[in-house]
Amino acid sequence: MRGHRDRLTPGEALQVALTAVGAFQGYVQHADSKVATVTTVHLGAAAVAATQIGVLAGLRAPGRPVLLGVAAVVLLALYAAGFFVAGYHLVQGLRPRLGGPAGPNRFGLAGGEPGSSPPANVTRQEQEAWLLAGRLAELSRDKHLRVGRALPWTALMLVATLLWLALGGLYG
User: What is the rounded CA–CA span in Å between residue 119 and residue 162?
Assistant: First the structure.
């Protein structure tokens, strides 16, 4: 049986909503850290590939076995596919999203009309906080999804780069 003490006061309900906003903001920051980490790996692989592109050209040089030339072209195509697809998802994970909750929201930077929000009672503030928490949850989910989509393509880039370095070391 629920008693009177089981109900939250409006102030307590607002505190719960604001705590949820803080938690979801943390989830967004966690997703941003993942995007930054995968982007660093992505750019690192691109830097290695850029400095070693001559290795692939050497594998296609006259007098080399045709199979080495074919392998070089395949590795370059795999690398390029990984680079562009992973890059697309990482850019989507990094791009700013300015759409906040609809209408004025004193807790959201980008929501509603510019300017100050009209005065609101605690219940309205709680509703605004929950709207922002929902928007932050969507944002976090999208960023994590983008990281998940970028990872296999980034791995493809790394494998292609390592294979062409290995072929260059063996036959270069």
Answer: 60
d(CA 37, CA 146): 13
pLDDT in tens, 50-91: 998 888 888 888 888 899 889 889 999 999 999 999 999 999
Query: Minimum mean pLDDT among 13-17, 57-61, 137-141, 154-158: which range?
Result: 57-61
Instruction: Give the CB-side neighbour count of residue 14, counting CA atoms within 13 A.
Output: 13
What's the CA gap between 86 and 80, in Å, rounded? 10
Domain spans of the chain, in order of start: 11-113+120-171
**How many C-beta neighbours within 10 Å does residue 30 have?**
13
CB-count exposure of residue 131 (10 Å: 0-12, 13-18, 19+):
buried
Q: How many CB atoms lie within 10 A of CB 8?
A: 11
**What is residue 92's three-state secondary structure?**
helix
- pTM of the full predicted structure? 0.82
> Looking at 27-95, which runs of residues are DSSP E strands?
none
